[in-house]
Specification:
heterotrimer; A: about 550 residues; alpha+beta; Ubiquitin-like (UB roll); Alpha-Beta Plaits; 7-stranded mixed sheet; 5-stranded mixed sheet; 15 helices; about 25% helix; about 20% strand; elongated; B: about 160 residues; 4 strands; about 10% strand
C-alpha cells in the first residue's frame, strides 16, 4: 500500500495505484484527457504531467506508479506551465465555437482552459480546417475540428464492444480520427463515445442542439428498464414551455453493474414518454368501441364488475398477468391485491420464456441481457407467481378460452404481440372483464373493457432487482403525463371500492412492508439501498 | 483481387513471425505492388487476411509515406527536399520537374505515368541533390541528368 | 596528413579492396566470420557481453548509449524469448553511413548480429531495413541467404549448438521508426508510435519480450571487438568515445562522403582536411555536427573533437555522426524552416506538444522567412521550444526544438533582420534559396 505525498498531503492508496489514481482518491484533481479508467492507458495527451521529487522531467500521472515515499507536486510553476502549454497547443486549431457547441458548459477542454489555460492565444497562423458534422452512425455525429485526438473513442470501440470501427488515419498534425470508408459507427454501445469524448467532437444526434447543460433542471438517478442488467443512469430533464421534457439519458458509474457504460438501446429509448400517441386518459369499452373516461368513473365500473364476478364465480375465476417491467413496490401491491385480497392463485409475471431465472443470459460480453424486462428477479423474489393450483400465463389464456376464467388483468404486457403462439384474442374476447394498463393503445389494450394509462419508468419511484439480485432505486424525473396514475393508485382505488383498503401509498411505505415480511428482502431498510444498490445476501454475510 | 500464389506467399510469411500481425507491412508492400495502390478493397482484403478491422489496417497504412492510399503513377519520383539536398540546389530541380510534367509535387501526370513526391532525407546526402526513381538512387542531380531521366520515363 | 588521417580503417576496410562487392566469399577472404569461429562455443555469452562492455562501444544511432550496458539490462531467466532487432532505419537528416554499410559490407552487420544474438541469448533476430532502401533490402536478403547456405545461420551454427534465425523486415517510410520503440511497434505491424518508457525494451520490447535494439554501425563493430579485443578498441579515440566512427559529411564541402575516423578528430580536420574544405573560397558559417536534431555549431567551435562528451560540452551532440556544413551564403532562417518542416512531417502525432508544436514551429519559421515575421515571434519560438522539450513520450519533440533554439542562439540577428526588412536577405544567393 504505497504511502506518498501529493501537494504536501499524505496519501495512502488501497492497493497498487498510479499517481493519478492516488491523487483522485485523495480528492486532488490532476487534469487529463486521454486517460479513462475503463480504457487502456496511452499517456498521449500529456495533460496529467506532474512533478515528482528526484525525477529530472515531469512525469505523466496516468502511467506512473505511485511508490512509497514519492513526493508529488501537481501545482508547481513547472507543472502549471506545461499544462498551459498543452492547452495552448490544443487551442491552436480548435474552432473555439463553444457558443454553438453541444459540449459547451460541460466540456473538459473548456473547463481546463478556464482553470489552467492561457488567457489568450499567441498564434496568428490560420486555423486548419477540417470536416464538420460528419454522421458516423445512427447516434453519433463528428466534428473533426474540435477533436483533440485523445483516442478514447478509438480505444473504446476496440476494447469494449471490440468492433474497432474507428482509427487514426495519417500522422502528425494531419492525423484524424475516422471510419474506414463505407463503415458506420453502429455497434450496440456506440453512444458511449459521446460521453467519453472530452470535447465537442462526438455529439449525440438525438440530443444535439436540444439544450444547454445549464438548462437541464434535473439530473435524476435511475436505472435503465430495458433489460435485467439494471444499468445505472442519470435522466436529464429540461423545463420547456410545453412542460418538463426528458432529453437525455447518460450512464452513471457503478463498478458492480455497468461500470461507465450503457447500451444504445437503453440510452436512446425514452422518447415514448413524450409520444403524442400515448394514452392520457382511461378508456372504457361500450359496445365495440372504446372511449375515454374519467379515472374515477372507470375505477367505479371496474370495481363493480369485479365485485359481481367475485360474488358469482369466486376468486379463482380471476387472473392477473403483470409485467416484470414494474417496480418491486408495484409488484408487491399487485401480488397483495390479487393473491391476498381477492385470493386468486392465478398470478404470473412470466410472459416470455427468458424470464425464467435459468434462461436469462448475457446477450453479449458487455452488459446487455436476454431478459428484456428490468425486474424478473424482483418478481421472483416477491413471489409474483401462481399460488397453489394457480395458472401460469399460458394456463390463464387457455382457461379464459375454455370459459373457466371470467376476468383478466394485464399490467403492461401486450400479450397478443408477445405470445403469438397463444390464442390471446380469442381468449380475451370471451371474458366478462379485461382490464389493461398500458402506455399505448396496443392489440391487447384494444381487447380490454377498461384501459388505464400506464407510466413510463422516468415517471416512477421505486426499485428494481437486477439479474444479480441487486436492489436498485429508480427516481421520478417527470411528473406522470395526463391522467396516468401509478399502479398503487389504481389498485388502491379498486381495493377501497371493494371495501378492502390497501393502506400504503408511497414506495417507501410499501418497501417497509416488503422488508417486514419474510423473504429475500426481509430486514432490508429503504435507507440501506444506496446509489449503488444492494444485494441482500451480501449485506447479511457481513457481521 | 489477390492472386492465390500471393496468398500462399503470405501464409509462409506469417508463419515466420511470432505474431501474425507482424506481417502487416510486408503484406502492405506486396499488395501495393500487386494492385498498384492500397485501395479500400485491398485494405479490406488485408484486414480479413490478418483478422483485423479495416480501420486498423488503414490506420497503419496511412502512417507510412511509401504506402499509397490513392492511385499513383506507373513511375514514382521521390525528390529529396531535406537540408543537404536543398543546400545543394534541390528546389530548382523539383520545380523543373513540376514545370516539365505540368504537375505539382504530390500529383500524378494526367496520363498516369509519373507521380512526383517530395521526400524527406533519403540518406543520400553525400550525393546530393538526390532523388529516387522507382526505388533507384540518382545522385548529384543536374538539370541535364534530370531531363534524361524524365525523357526515359515519359516515353516508357 | 594528420594523425587521424593515417587511421587504419576498420568498418570500411573493404573500400581498400578493388572490385569488392560484399559477397560472402569476398567477406571471408578479408577476414570475415573469423570472429564467429573464435567466439561461438569457445567463449561464454557472458564473456562476450563483458568484452563489449569493456570495449566502451557506444551506440552509433544517435543516443550514444553504451552497448554492453544495454545488453546487460536483459533479465536473466525471464522465461521469455529474447530478441535482437537491428535498427537499419537510418533517417536522421544528413546521415548516410548505415545505408552504405548495408549495401557494401552487409556480412559485417550479419556477423555482428550473430555474435550479439549469441551474447544475449537471442534465437530470432530482426533486421529492420528502412523502406526507401530498396537496393539495401535486396542486398540484405541475399546476405541472409548466403549465411544460411554456409551454416552461419540456422540450427547448430558452426557446431556450437547455437541456433539463430534472422528475418529481414522492411519499413515503409517514417522517420520515427528509427526510435527504438517506434521501430518495435512498426515491426509488430502497427503505426510506428513510440511507447511510453518504462518499461524499456530490455524488459518488455518486441512482443513484450526482452529485446535489444542496436544500430547497424554499432553491430558492425562487434566482430572486430571480439576478434581484436576490447583493449584494441579502447585504444582508438578518446576514453569515453572509443572505437572508430563513421562521419557522414555533406553540404557545402568539396568531398562529401562517409569518413571513418576516431572520435578524437576535430571538426576542423573533418571539414577541411578530410572533406576537402568549402568550395568556391567561401567562408564557413555553420555546422550541424550530429544530424539535423543536433544544435548547430559555428566557426568558433571548429576545434572541438567529435566525441560524444566534447560535443555535449559545447552545447550540441554527437548524434548520428552526420555533419552538415553550411557556408556563408546560407540563410539560417531558411535552414530552420527546412529542419522544422521535416519534424512537422515526421511527428507521429500522438503527443500533443509534438503534434501541434512541430507544426506551429514550422509555420512561424516559414512566415519569418517569407518576410511576415513579427518581433514577438522570436521569444514565442523560444518559449514554444521550451514547451516542447522533455515533455513527450519520445524525443522527436526535443529533436525539433533543440536545433531551432540553437539557430536563434547563434544567429538571432539574422532572424531579426528578416523581420526588420520584411524579406529574406539571402534571396538570390547561392545557398538555401526560397522558392
Amino acid at each position: 500500500m504505497p504511502k506518498l505525498t501529493i501537494n504536501g498531503i499524505e496519501v495512502t492508496t488501497a492497493g497498487p495505484a498510479t499517481i493519478l489514481e492516488a491523487a483522485k482518491s485523495a480528492g486532488i484533481e490532476i487534469p487529463h484527457y486521454c486517460y479513462h479508467p475503463g480504457l487502456s492507458i496511452v499517456g498521449q495527451c500529456r495533460m496529467c504531467q506532474v512533478e515528482v521529487e528526484k525525477m529530472p522531467k515531469l512525469v505523466t500521472a496516468c502511467n506512473t506508479s505511485a511508490a512509497d515515499g514519492m513526493v508529488v507536486t501537481t501545482n508547481s510553476p513547472k507543472v502549471e506551465k506545461a499544462r498551459r502549454a498543452v492547452l495552448e497547443f490544443y487551442l491552436l486549431n480548435h474552432p473555439l465555437d463553444c457558443p454553438i457547441c453541444d459540449r459547451g458548459g460541460e466540456c473538459p477542454l473548456q473547463d481546463y482552459t478556464m482553470k489552467y489555460g492561457p488567457g489568450e492565444s499567441r498564434s496568428v497562423e490560420p486555423k486548419v480546417q477540417r470536416a464538420k458534422h460528419v454522421v458516423l452512425g445512427p447516434h453519433v455525429i463528428f466534428d473533426q475540428e474540435r477533436c483533440i485526438l485523445c483516442t478514447r473513442c478509438i480505444r473504446f470501440c476496440r476494447e469494449v464492444p471490440k468492433t474497432g470501427e474507428l482509427g487514426v488515419f495519417a500522422r502528425g498534425d494531419r492525423s484524424e480520427i475516422n471510419l474506414f470508408p463505407g463503415q458506420m459507427l453502429d455497434n450496440a454501445y456506440s453512444g458511449n463515445v459521446i460521453d467519453i469524448c472530452p470535447v465537442g467532437a462526438l455529439t449525440s444526434r438525438q440530443y444535439r442542439f436540444q439544450s444547454r447543460p445549464w438548462d437541464l433542471i434535473r439530473h435524476t438517478h435511475s436505472v435503465c428498464p430495458l433489460c435485467s442488467a439494471g444499468c445505472n443512469v442519470v435522466l436529464d430533464v429540461r423545463d420547456k414551455q410545453s412542460g418538463n421534457e426528458l432529453l437525455r439519458i447518460n450512464p452513471r458509474e457503478n463498478m458492480a453493474v455497468n461500470r461507465w457504460w450503457m447500451c444504445d438501446e437503453g440510452r436512446f429509448t425514452f422518447r415514448y414518454h413524450h409520444d403524442p400517441d400515448r394514452l392520457m386518459l382511461p378508456l372504457v369499452k361500450s359496445g365495440d368501441q372504446q372511449h375515454t373516461s374519467a379515472p374515477e368513473a372507470v375505477l367505479d365500473s371496474v370495481a363493480s364488475a369485479l365485485a359481481h364476478i367475485l360474488a358469482a364465480q369466486g376468486a379463482s375465476s380471476i387472473g392477473c398477468i403483470v409485467s416484470s417491467r414494474h417496480t418491486n413496490e408495484e409488484l408487491f401491491l399487485v401480488r397483495r391485491f390479487f393473491r391476498d385480497l381477492l385470493q386468486t392463485p392465478h398470478v404470473d409475471h412470466r410472459v416470455r420464456p427468458v424470464q425464467m431465472q435459468a434462461s436469462d443470459a448475457p446477450e453479449d460480453a458487455i452488459l446487455r441481457r436476454t431478459d428484456k424486462t428490468a425486474n424478473s428477479h424482483g418478481a421472483r423474489d416477491l413471489d409474483v407467481l401462481p399460488g397453489p393450483d394457480g395458472l401460469d400465463t399460458a394456463g390463464m389464456i387457455e382457461a379464459a378460452r375454455a370459459g373457466r376464467l371470467k376476468a383478466l388483468f394485464v399490467f403492461d404486457e401486450d400479450l397478443a404481440q408477445e405470445r403469438p403462439d397463444l390464442p390471446v384474442a380469442d381468449a380475451l374476447r370471451g371474458l366478462d372483464l379485461v382490464v389493461v394498463t398500458s402506455l399505448f393503445r396496443h392489440a391487447t389494450a384494444a381487447l380490454a373493457h377498461a384501459v388505464f394509462p400506464g407510466l413510463g419508468f422516468a415517471e416512477k419511484e421505486g426499485s428494481f432487482t437486477n439479474y444479480q439480485g441487486r436492489i436498485q432505486k429508480i427516481h421520478r424525473a417527470l411528473e406522470p403525463a395526463g391522467a396516468c396514475r401509478p399502479v398503487a393508485e389504481i389498485l388502491g382505488g379498486l381495493a377501497g371500492r371493494l371495501g378492502k383498503p390497501l393502506g400504503v401509498v408511497t414506495p417507501e411505505q410499501i418497501w417497509t412492508e416488503i422488508a417486514a415480511q419474510p423473504g429475500p428482502y426481509h430486514g432490508i431498510d429503504w435507507q440501506m439501498i444506496g446509489p449503488e444498490g444492494i444485494i441482500p445476501s451480501e449485506v447479511r454475510k457481513e457481521p | 483481387m489477390i492472386a492465390e500464389e500471393t496468398r500462399h506467399r503470405f501464409d509462409a510469411l506469417v508463419a515466420r513471425y511470432p505474431e501474425k500481425r507482424s506481417a502487416m507491412i510486408p503484406i502492405l508492400h506486396a499488395v501495393q505492388a500487386e494492385v498498384g495502390y492500397l485501395s479500400p478493397a485491398a485494405v479490406e482484403w488485408i484486414a480479413q487476411y490478418l483478422d483485423l478491422m479495416p480501420a486498423d489496417v488503414m490506420s497503419v497504412a496511412s502512417f507510412y509515406d511509401m504506402l499509397h492510399l490513392e492511385p499513383v503513377g506507373k513511375h514514382l519520383i521521390y525528390a529529396c527536399q531535406n537540408l543537404t539536398c536543398t543546400l545543394l540546389g534541390a528546389e530548382p530541380l523539383i520545380r523543373h520537374i513540376e514545370t516539365r510534367l505540368g504537375i505539382r509535387a504530390g500529383e500524378t501526370t494526367p496520363d498516369g505515368k509519373i507521380t512526383l513526391k517530395r521526400m524527406e532525407c533519403l540518406a543520400a546526402c553525400g550525393d546530393g541533390p538526390a532523388m529516387q526513381v522507382d526505388g533507384e538512387y540518382h545522385g548529384r542531380m543536374t538539370l541535364e541528368k534530370l531531363d534524361r531521366i524524365l525523357e526515359t520515363l515519359q516515353h516508357d | 596528413m594528420t594523425e587521424t588521417g593515417a587511421f587504419e580503417k576498420v568498418l570500411t576496410r573493404y573500400q581498400t579492396i578493388p572490385g569488392y562487392r560484399g559477397t560472402l566469399p569476398e567477406y571471408e577472404a578479408h577476414g570475415g566470420y573469423q570472429a564467429l569461429h573464435t567466439v561461438l562455443g569457445k567463449m561464454a555469452p557472458a564473456e562476450v557481453v563483458d568484452a563489449v562492455k569493456r570495449s566502451g562501444l557506444r551506440g552509433r544511432g544517435g543516443a550514444g548509449f553504451p552497448c554492453g550496458m544495454k545488453w546487460g539490462f536483459i533479465p536473466k531467466d525471464s522465461g521469455k524469448p529474447v530478441y535482437l532487432v537491428v535498427n537499419g532505419d537510418e533517417s536522421e537528416p544528413g546521415t548516410f553511413k548505415d545505408r552504405m554499410l548495408i549495401e557494401e559490407e552487409p556480412h559485417q552487420i550479419l556477423e555482428g548480429v550473430i555474435l550479439s544474438s549469441y551474447a544475449i541469448g537471442c534465437h530470432l533476430a530482426f533486421l529492420y531495413c528502412r523502406g526507401e532502401f530498396v537496393r539495401g533490402a535486396q542486398v540484405l536478403q541475399r546476405t541472409i541467404a548466403e549465411a544460411y547456405d554456409k551454416g552461419y545461420l540456422g540450427r547448430n551454427i558452426l557446431g556450437s549448438g547455437f541456433d539463430l534465425d534472422v528475418i529481414q523486415h522492411r519499413g515503409a517510410g517514417a522517420y520515427i521508426c528509427g526510435e527504438e520503440t517506434g521501430l518495435l511497434e512498426s515491426l509488430e505491424g502497427k503505426r510506428g508510435q513510440p511507447r511510453p518508457k518504462p518499461p524499456f525494451p530490455a524488459v518488455s520490447g518486441l512482443y513484450r519480450c526482452p529485446t535489444v535494439v542496436n544500430n547497424v554501425e554499432t553491430l558492425s563493430n562487434i566482430p572486430h571487438i571480439l576478434l581484436r579485443g576490447p583493449e584494441w578498441f579502447t585504444a582508438i579515440g578518446p576514453p569515453k568515445s572509443t572505437g572508430p566512427r563513421l562521419f557522414s559529411v555533406s553540404g557545402h564541402v568539396a568531398r562529401p562522403g562517409n569518413y571513418e575516423l576516431p572520435m578524437s578528430v576535430t571538426l576542423r580536420q573533418l571539414i577541411f582536411e578530410h572533406a576537402g574544405g568549402i568550395p568556391g573560397g567561401r567562408a564557413l558559417k555553420a555546422v550541424i555536427p550530429g544530424g539535423s536534431s543536433s544544435p548547430v555549431l559555428t566557426p568558433a567551435h571548429l576545434d572541438v573533437t567529435m566525441d560524444f562528451d566534447s560535443l555535449a560540452a559545447v552545447g550540441s551532440m554527437g548524434g548520428s555522426g552526420a555533419v552538415v556544413v553550411m557556408d556563408e551564403t546560407t540563410c539560417m532562417v531558411r535552414v530552420g524552416e527546412i529542419v522544422s518542416r521535416f519534424y512537422h512531417h515526421e511527428s507521429c502525432g500522438q503527443c500533443t506538444q509534438c503534434r501541434e508544436g512541430t507544426a506551429w514551429l514550422h509555420k512561424v519559421l516559414r512566415r519569418i522567412e517569407n518576410g511576415q515575421g513579427r518581433k514577438e515571434d522570436l521569444d514565442l519560438l523560444l518559449d514554444m521550444c521550451d514547451n516542447m522539450k522533455g515533455k513527450t513520450i519520445c524525443v522527436l519533440s526535443d529533436a525539433a526544438a533543440m536545433p531551432i533554439e540553437s539557430y536563434l542562439k547563434h544567429f538571432r540577428d539574422e532572424f531579426e533582420r528578416h523581420i526588420r526588412d520584411r524579406a529574406c536577405p539571402f534571396a538570390g544567393a547561392a545557398g538555401v534559396r526560397k522558392h
